[in-house]
Amino acid sequence: MQLTTEEVTPGLVVHLDTTLLRTLGGAQTNAVLDANGDRAVVGAHDFLIVAVDLAQGTCTAVPLFPKAAVGNQPLLNALKTGGASGWRTGDSFFSHWQHWQIPIA
């Protein structure tokens, strides 16, 4: 499903393919890709949009995880909205350490 620029707002959860993002270009992450491996999430993954910069045409997003880990913060189920199956009742954690800068387009 394609979204309009106006629909991309902080709090939105999107399912993105990081391989496609990297192939298309313009996406950046602070997670390190080095000889020891890629610390960034890979493949299709859910992201929480935390900021939008319309002037730059980008948004900042953090990956979501179903389990707790060091550096992850839980999302409160009571604050979740939307119709995705299990989204409002399942556990979700976001990474404090991994951020992605993603083109809105």
Q: What's a concise summary of this model?
A:
By secondary structure, the protein is mainly beta. The chain contains one helix and nine strands. It has one helix at 18-24, and strands spanning 13-17, 28-29, 33-34, 37-38, 44-53, 58-65, 72-74, 93-95, 100-103.
Average pLDDT works out at 83
Element-by-element helix/strand order: EHEEEEEEEE
Global geometry: globular
Helix content estimate: under 10%
Number of helices in the DSSP assignment: 1
Task: Give me the secondary-structure category.
Answer: mainly beta
Give the low-confidence spans.
Answer: none
| Proportion of strand residues | 35-45%
State the end-to-end CA separation.
13 Å
- Which radius of gyration do the C-alpha atoms yield? 14 Å
